[in-house]
Amino acid sequence: VAEGASLGRWIKVEKRDRRLIVYEDTEPIRSYPIVLGPEPDGAKLHEGDFRTPEGEYSIVAKFPHPRWSRFLLIDYPTPVNRQLHAWTKEAGLLPHDGSGVPGAGGQVGIHGTSDESRNRRGENWTLGCVSLFNRDVEELYAMVDVGTRVVIEKE
């Protein structure tokens, strides 16, 4: 980022530290505990791998969710994710179930939980999304807009 350039409001997800941090330019303004999928190590390679993607994304939709309070959809898979999926497929590293290999996946986002006790225990239960406590996701939902940059750091 050029000196004097504004980053605006953006989100960093720290997979290793299980934190979601909201920044205003370079200043952290809020931090929330998170849980991920049951296979948190490494980048998401295909649908059903229970991993959270890594890289740069943006929020493409926000909506109330009947099960998880709020849902902030990110633009996974990006062209970079699609390329990683293609390379993994070409290398023969994707599972095969008889009907072919799984796609890159989609519908990944930041959301609340239907069972706060699982989040309190630090249980990684999502299919690859980032889950916050409902009170936290409601606060986050009000703080960020569609188009907000989301950086998900490596495990």
Structure explained in plain terms:
- The protein is an alpha+beta fold.
- The chain has three helices and eight strands; from the N terminus they run βββββαβαβαβ.
- It has helices spanning 79-90, 116-120, 134-143; strands spanning 9-14, 19-24, 27-33, 55-65, 69-74, 109-111, 130-131, 149-153.
- Strands 3-2-1-8-4-5-6-7 form an eight-stranded mixed sheet, with helices on one face.
Instruction: Count all strands and give the number.
Output: 8
Strand pairing plus helix content: what structural class? Answer: alpha+beta
Mean pLDDT figure = 92
Q: Output the number of helix runs.
A: 3
| N-to-C SSE string, H for helix and E for strand | EEEEEHEHEHE
Could you outline the blueprint of secondary structure elements for this entry?
Layout: E1 9-14, E2 19-24, E3 27-33, E4 55-65, E5 69-74, H1 79-90, E6 109-111, H2 116-120, E7 130-131, H3 134-143, E8 149-153
List keywords for this structure.
155 residues; alpha+beta; globular; 3 helices; single chain; eight-stranded mixed beta sheet
Compact description:
By secondary structure, this protein is an alpha+beta fold.
